[in-house]
Amino acid sequence: MASLDIAVLLFEGFEPLDAFGPVEMLGYLGKIDGSPVETRLRFVSQQGGLARGSYGVPVQTMPVSSDDKPDVLLIPGGGGTRPLSKDASFIAMLDSLASRSTHCLTVCTGSALLAATGQLDGRRTTSNKRALNWVKSVRPQVNWQDQARWESDGKYVTSSGVSAGIDMALGWIAGQYGIELARRIAEHTEYRWAEDSHDDPFAVDSQQRQ
Questions:
Q1: In whole angstroms, how far apart are CA 121 and each of 16, 40, 116, 166?
Q2: What residues in the chain have per-residue pLDDT under 70?
């Protein structure tokens, strides 16, 4: 059976559900009956050690190495993305890691970090609609989408805010291994999957509140 190496890039101030929501779906992919792959999930960070997310959630991580080539790179968002978007050392590390990854998935403002590398220039990309004005300012060259639950463009898949990462992960699974397998994972995890990537009611609600 094929093995799928999944690296989750963490940092100080990451949003826990951004990371662990998709991790649950991707992890389930490796254990559900009939899956074509085994999944290897690992948590990495620029320096290694403890990465503390929102609400003080600590996660032990391994440092990113120069020969790290994950099949899937998952980048969550969170408050920590704002200072990191201007951190040249971090962005250079992410640029190199994302270039070596086969697939890149982002949740919420994690797309701003990937956008800062220039790899999303001209690509259809989305993010948390409540932070979209700031995200757009990080890299205007990106083809930012104002209404999308998640967007796929080449090896890059980006999603809207927080829980949207779960829908995105299932959408990625459907694209790689078939929609029926994604539906089975949603059923086993008792999750109501929003299968339409452009059904984004929160974007409308966010616009109405501005």
A1: 27, 30, 9, 25
A2: 204-210
What is the residue-averaged pLDDT of the chain? 95
Using the structure block, give the residue that is written with the tokens 């990537």.
Answer: 197
Q: What angle do CA 204, 209, 210 make, to 5 degrees?
A: 100
Distance CA 200, CA 71 (A): 28
CA distance 74 to 64: 13
Name the CA dihedral angle for 148, 152, 156, 160, rounded to a multiple of 10 degrees.
20
At the topology level, CATH places domain 2-209 in Rossmann fold (3.40.50)
Tokens representing 36 are: 């074509």
pLDDT tens per residue across span 168-180? 999 999 999 999 9
> Domain boundaries in the chain?
2-209
DSSP 91: H
With residue 60 as reference, give the H or E element that holds it: strand 58-63
Burial 11-39 (b: 16+ CB within 10 A, else e): bebbbbbbbbbbbbbbbbbbeeeebeeeb
Are 120 and 129 contacting, i.e. CB atoms less than 8 angstroms apart?
A: no
